[in-house]
C-alpha cells in the first residue's frame, strides 16, 4: 500500500465516499461522486484515502454494481473489521487521472471557488459546493446572506470561465429572493 503526502490530498478529485461494509469479505458500498462510475470503479484502479493525515493508495481487487452503486473490495482488505475502518472515507484520485471533458462540461472541483455574479455585474457570492446527480446539479453559493442555490443550467449559468474563476448567471425572477426568503423563513 503506497502512501503520499497530506498536501497531495487537497490536489486530488473526489470520486466517491464509502457508505458502508457489504458482506463478510471486506467489500464496501460506495456512493459515487463521479459521472463515470463504471470507468472509475474497475478492478486494478487505484483510489486514495486519507486516514489520520496519511494519504494511502488502495487498489480495487473486485468491483460490481448494485442499484447503481459500486460494491468493491480492495486488495489486502479481506475482512469486515478492516473494511469497516473505511466507512465514511472519501475516495479520491489525482486530478491528472481524470478524463478530459468536452468544452462546456466541468468537474465540480473546477467550479468550487468561482465568483458568481449576475449579468448586470452584481456580486452573488462564491461557489462553495456543487450538489446533485443525474437529475440535475446546482451550485451552492456562499453569499453574505447565507447559501444561495443556483441551478447549473445553461439558461441560468450563461457564462462559465473556470480559468478566470467567474460564473455569470441570469437568475429567473425571484430566484435570489427565494433563497433570501427561505433563510428568513
Would you kindly provide a written description of the structure presented here, covering whatever features stand out?
- The termini are far apart.
- This protein folds into two domains: 3-97, Elongation Factor Tu (Ef-tu), domain 3; 108-184, SH3 type barrels.
- The chain is 15% helix and 47% strand.
- Strands 1, 2, 3, 4, 5, 6 and 7 form a seven-stranded antiparallel β-sheet that branches. It has a six-stranded mixed β-sheet with strand order 11-10-9-8-13-12.
- With 185 residues, the chain is mainly β.
- The chain contains five helices and 13 strands.
- A hairpin with a 4-residue loop joins strand 12 and strand 13.
- The longest helix is centred in the C-terminal third of the chain and has 10 residues, at 175-184.
The number of E-state strands comes to 13
Main pleated sheet: 7 strands, antiparallel
CATH class of the largest domain: Mainly Beta
Q: SS-based structural class?
A: mainly beta
Q: Which sequence of SSEs, written as H and E, runs from N to C? A: EHEEHEEEHEHEEEEEEH
Structural domain count: 2
Number of helices: 5
How would you describe the oligomerization state of the chains in this entry?
A: single chain
CATH topology call of the largest domain: Elongation Factor Tu (Ef-tu), domain 3
Radius of gyration: 19 Å
Q: What's the helix and strand layout?
A:
Blueprint: E1 3-4, H1 6-9, E2 12-22, E3 27-32, H2 37-40, E4 46-51, E5 54-66, E6 69-74, H3 80-84, E7 90-94, H4 108-111, E8 115-118, E9 123-133, E10 136-143, E11 146-151, E12 157-161, E13 166-169, H5 175-184
Amino acid at each position: 500500500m503506497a502512501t503520499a503526502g497530506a498536501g497531495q490530498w487537497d490536489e486530488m478529485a473526489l470520486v466517491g465516499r464509502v457508505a458502508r461494509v457489504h458482506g463478510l469479505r471486506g467489500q464496501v458500498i460506495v456512493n459515487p461522486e463521479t459521472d463515470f462510475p463504471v470507468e472509475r470503479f474497475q478492478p486494478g484502479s487505484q483510489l486514495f484515502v486519507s486516514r489520520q493525515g496519511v494519504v494511502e493508495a488502495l487498489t480495487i481487487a473486485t468491483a460490481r454494481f448494485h442499484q447503481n452503486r459500486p460494491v468493491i473490495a480492495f486488495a489486502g482488505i479481506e475482512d469486515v473489521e478492516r473494511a469497516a475502518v473505511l466507512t465514511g472515507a472519501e475516495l479520491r484520485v489525482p486530478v491528472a487521472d481524470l478524463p478530459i471533458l468536452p468544452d462546456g462540461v466541468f468537474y465540480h472541483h473546477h467550479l468550487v471557488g468561482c465568483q458568481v455574479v449576475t449579468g448586470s455585474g452584481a456580486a452573488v457570492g462564491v461557489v462553495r459546493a456543487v450538489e446533485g446527480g443525474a437529475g440535475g446539479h446546482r451550485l451552492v453559493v456562499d453569499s453574505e446572506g447565507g447559501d444561495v442555490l443556483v441551478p447549473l443550467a445553461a439558461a441560468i449559468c450563461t457564462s462559465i470561465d473556470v480559468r478566470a474563476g467567474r460564473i455569470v448567471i441570469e437568475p429567473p425572477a425571484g430566484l435570489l429572493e427565494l433563497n433570501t426568503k427561505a433563510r428568513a423563513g
